[in-house]
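User:
Can I borrow your eye for a moment on a structure tokenisation matter? Would you put together a sequence-and-structure record for a protein of your own picking? Please set it down just below, with no commentary around it:
AI:
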Amino acid sequence: MVAMPSGESARSPGADGAAREPAASGSALFHDGNRALQDRFDGRRVADTLEARRRAAAFAPEHVALIEAAPFFFLATAAEGAVDCSFKGGPPGFVRVTGPAELEFPDYDGNSMYLSLGNILKSPSIGMLFIAFDGRSLRLRLRGQASLVEDPVRIAAIPGARRLVRVAVTDIFPNCPRYIPDLAGSAPSAYLPRPDGSQRAPEWKGRDYIRDILPRDDPHRV
């Protein structure tokens, strides 16, 4: 495991290691489509605060622990209108954090369609989702720029690897754990809507920097 400094930032490094500047939307995380819905449903204040408070520029120790203990993650890729979401599994530790905002994972024997890797060759922007379904309610979303590594020596050091995928991570975002079921305990999320439509409030909505800026129609607004 690579120990990384903790801390939060409103800016993240790009694929070349340089900090990514905000786009025309005034955000490095949100585009105009996100902004349109935030404004329509009175969510911009919350979105901006979460970006500033929760989006990180480098992995914190808890991020590294979740990633390197994960037996699987979900990978999203897209190119030329072909959008794909793939399950990637392996022994815990098969995803390795290799830098403050960089990781690698092996590509194992598959079905020869190369849907994910083919998309990466055409468009390196990817999304990764790590979730713990064991009752801890942990979720981590990553965005980054992926590239294929075909160094025979490095590949030979990882049992079963056909090649490696390196990801320069641009967005590290620990996401709200609501709705994640406890599969180990066969228990549904405690935050699912009740028969009367009410829901338990998540902890984050009560934080001092969030509770007073919730959208006007938020069911947990005080």
Notes: The domain at 61-174 is CATH 2.30.110.10 (Pnp Oxidase; Chain A). Strands lie at 72-79, 82-89, 96-99, 102-107, 125-132, 138-149, 163-174.
